[in-house]
Amino acid sequence: MSDPSSLDAGAAPVPAKPVPEWRQYVRFLRNALSQSVEGGWKFYVWMTLLTAVFLVGANAWAVQVRDGMAVTAMSDHVSWGLYIANFTFLVGLAAGGVMMVIPAYLYHDEQMHDIVIIGELLAIAAIVMSIMFVVCDLGRPDRFWHMIPGLGKFNFPVSMLTWDVIVLNGYLIINLHICVYLLYKRFRAQAPDPKMYVPAVLLSIVWAISIHTVTAFLYCGLGGRPFWNTALLAPRFLASAFVSGPAFIIVAIQIIRWQTGRMFGEGAIRTLVGIIRVTILVNLLMVVSEVFVEFYTGGSHTSAAKYLYFGLHGHSELVPWIWTALAFTLVAVLLFLQPGVNRRPVILNTACLLAFVGLWIEKGMGMIIPAFIPSTLHEIVEYRPSLTEWKVTAGIWALGLMIYTLLIKITINVHSRKLRDASGARTVDPEDALSIPSEG
Amino acid sequence: MNDPDPDKPRTPCSGNCSCSGGSPTPSDPIGNPGGSTRRAVLKGIGATLGVAAYAKALAPLTELTQQTSMDEFLQKHYKELTKEELSAVLERLTRETKEQYGADVTIADPKPREGVKFGYALNLSICNGCRKCAEACHLENNHDRPSHQSYIRVFEMTKGSMDFEKGDVHYDHPVPQPDKYYMPVQCQQCEHPPCVDVCPVEATWKEPDGIVVVDYNWCIGCRYCEAACPYHARRFNWQKPEIAAAEINPDQSYLSNRIRPQGVMEKCTFCLHRTRNGRLPACLEACPTGARVFGDLNDPESEIRWVLANKRVFVLKEELGLKPQFFYFFDE
Ligand code: SF4
Ligand code: SF4
After folding, report:
1. Nearest Cα to B157, choosing from B149, B146, B165, B145?
2. Are residues B55 and B138 in the same domain?
3. Closest of A164, A41, A29, A54 to residue A403, by C-alpha
């Protein structure tokens, strides 16, 4: 029985009956779809678990839509909470994926080039999650269409939120295009045409910077919130994004290696560790300089920082959070600076995890919430996320991990498809980092 | 679901896979038939359970859609409604108020008056902190009863300081206290309102007479405006407002005091349903000390113009440059 998957991969001339492009594409999609529901028991357990968590979140969200946002712990004083905190962090994570793209395409790091798609897929999953967090934060998600240009009223360019909608969706589309195009070409065993994707890759680099800059502008443009109203916010966001993104990818590469039994990505991990060593210090430096300005200057503007780091008038809900974040970051710095850390998986993964969690706190509970406490009229109303908010948050993360898992799985599968070499024998490309060799 | 896709790679999935594990010739189309039926059954069960679980998880949403009519869902932005559409909307809202709250109300839509620009001033020398204005606002604007919502917050300030950090809104003792003064704060109807700039869907805007309004049927509830307002002037409807039929103020308007839906933003509108019809704001009428002065800033003969010209006037947070149309002053 002939294998239709390797139709035109041969050196032989044109196949007798060419299959139209769209049918190839449908095949590609069907293959991807079937890959999404096929797998070993580990895959099923993992996906079932994630689905369960996702459903808990979906249910919590449905109740929130029905009963109102009163089921969250947010108030007129602290009007944004865990959702916007996660949103901010995830935009950073999405932007962080680009830290694989830059070495691969601008510095022609060959090893990175082979697996750069791991970062691009992360961008896709992270953007989807961040958009979901915004939707879950809306009081009237049924009116989402009011934001669609043409249908509703899109307050562009005045509202920074409309900029964010544009850049986030743009980033999603760019990365989808790159990934789908490269995978499709690999599926067809054709060489990708650089004209079709290299411009998009270069655009994605600029775009990654823009998504996080615009997201920072959402906050730092508000004159009434001194805690956010600092020019350092956007650079800080970027620096921390370039820690959390690479940290996630380092761990992801190792998990994929362990699951596929294929050794790859040593060089990529080395490069990423090198990047983190710089960015984590830059981020720390900016935190320190912000803290200095806040506390050395003093005055009413310092209230939020005081509340965050030390508590204010007996209110100290955020103090444990921020010190945990700082401790995690500091330990992560020390671990990352160890010589040869990339060859010591335990230390490396601990460092990545600490940096990741530390930044999640710092960007969320440590960045979004304190701007509201004390309020613009200096009232202190505290905030501790409600169970509903935690459930929805866990649900969205579960969905994001599902998406990422499936994307990676589809990718590995496409890369592992057998091709015909010149002699007609079927083989996988031994050079392909993401393919799994197997005896035919 | 168990699609025997011919495109599937002939390798038995990935290395971690147990599916057709035992089959040494996975390219054999009938390899391991028993296993594949079992898998199909399992998958079928899984899919059914999955769909059921999704339906169950999202069931609360269906309870909501019974409340939101198609007309409401499709309603256009206030500024794009034709005359007929607007009256249909007002008629629908009146009906819904009757259905959901059991009250007969009239919902009008008074337009701004030509050439008028409203301003408000408050005399800090005589305000005694009785909170009658905040209470009047609560009643006039059909606020949620359990939360005692009001657009006005009265701060008890320490003499010798203008810093709100030394102020207190939760004071609970006879007023006025000798070492204190009192500072009611509500929407300042900024000339350059940041709340309007940030709204992603233009659900809030500044009217020609200076009043910043919200289209409660267009707002998506993102609360960006609440984050942007430096005067804590905006309120969100965290849940559907509760209010007894007998307590509902039936004199309502679309852009001001009609009962707001759940999940949208609301704010002080200088009682435009009153002031655009030549009456005074409810908070002013309730004030027993006469601390409040309301009027047309464009009318040189108005009392507010006299106050601005002759008293020691200031605005809150002037350094932000938002040009509030709400002024505070002291007597000589
Ligand atoms: S006080 Fe706040 S809500 Fe009122 S116009 Fe100014 S920014 Fe907007
Ligand atoms: S909460 Fe409503 S009015 Fe405020 S910015 Fe969002 S959509 Fe606009």
Report:
1. B165
2. no
3. A54
Give residues with Cβ within 8 angstroms of B12, minimum separation 6. A438, B19, B20, B21, B23, B26
In chain A, what are the domain boundaries? 39-220+387-413, 226-236+247-382
CATH topology (fold) of A39-220+387-413: Formate dehydrogenase/DMSO reductase fold (1.20.1630)
Query: CA-CA distances (angstroms) from residue A89 to A96, A117, A126, B78, B90?
Result: 10, 21, 9, 35, 43
Say which of A4, A139, A412 has its CB closest to residue B264. Answer: A139
> Is residue B24 located within the same domain as residue B126?
no
Amino acid in position B124: L
Residue of minimum CA distance from atom 4 in ligand 2: B225
pLDDT digits (tens, 9 = 90+) for A113-163: 888 999 999 999 999 999 999 999 999 999 999 999 888 999 999 999 999
Q: What is the amino acid identity at position A327?
A: A
Helix and strand totals (H; E) in chain B: 9, 12
**Which residues have a Cβ under 8 Å from the Cβ of A225 and sit 6 or more positions away?**
A219, A371, A372, A376, B227, B230
Is the bond into A374 cis (omega within 30 degrees of 0)?
yes
CB contacts, 8 Å: A80 with chain B: 223, 227
pLDDT of B183-235, one tens digit each? 999 999 999 999 999 999 999 999 999 999 999 999 999 999 999 999 999 99
Question: Taking CB atoms and an 8 Å limit, are B60 and A161 in contact across chains?
Answer: no
Question: Chain A partners of B322 at a C-beta cutoff of 8 Å?
Answer: 223
Order the strands of the B118-123 sheet from edge to edge.
B292-296, B118-123, B326-330, B312-314
- Asked if A56 contacts A399 with a C-beta cutoff of 8 angstroms, the reply is no
DSSP state of A73: S
Read off the tokens for A404: 């990422």
Question: Ligand 1 pocket check: which of B188, B205, B206, B316 to mutate, most ligand atoms within 8 Å of Cβ?
Answer: B188
Residue B64, pLDDT score: 74
Predicted TM-score of the model (pTM): 0.90
Ligand 2 pocket test, candidate residues B223, B255, B262, most atoms within 8 A of CB: B223
Query: pLDDT grade, residue A9 (50/70/90)?
Result: very low
B13–A38 CB contact, under 8 Å: yes
> Residue B95: inside a domain, yes or no?
no
As a whole number of angstroms, the distance between CA A350 and CA A353 comes to 5
Residue whose CA lies nearest to ligand 2 atom number 5: B199
User: Are A365 and A304 contacting, i.e. CB atoms less than 8 angstroms apart?
Assistant: no
Tell how many helices (H) and how many strands (E) occur in chain A.
Answer: 13, 2
B316 contacts B324 by C-beta, under 8 angstroms:
yes
Residue of B nearest to A408 (CA): B14
Separation between Cα atoms, residue A364 and residue A382, nearest integer Å: 15
Q: How many domains does chain B have?
A: 2
Residue with tokens 């993104």: A245
Q: What is the DSSP secondary structure assignment for residue B174, as one 8-state letter?
A: -
Spell out which residues of chain A touch residue B50, defining contact as CB-CB under 8 Å: 51
Q: Does residue B48 sit within a domain?
A: yes
What's the rounded Cα separation, in Å, for the pair A397 and B140?
44
| C-alpha angle B133-B139-B143 in degrees, rounded to nearest 5 | 110
Phi/psi at A344 (5° precision): -120, 90
Query: Across residues A361-390, what is the average pLDDT?
Result: 96
**Domain residues for B33?**
7-63
Report the C-alpha gap between A329 and A121 in whole angstroms. 26
Q: What string of H, E and C letters represents the secondary structure of B244-271? A: CHHHCCCEEECCCCCCCCCCCEEECCCC
Assess if residue B244 is contained within a domain: yes
Asked if A137 lies within 8 A of B7 by C-beta distance, the reply is: no
Residues on chain A touching B202 (C-beta within 8 angstroms): 153, 155
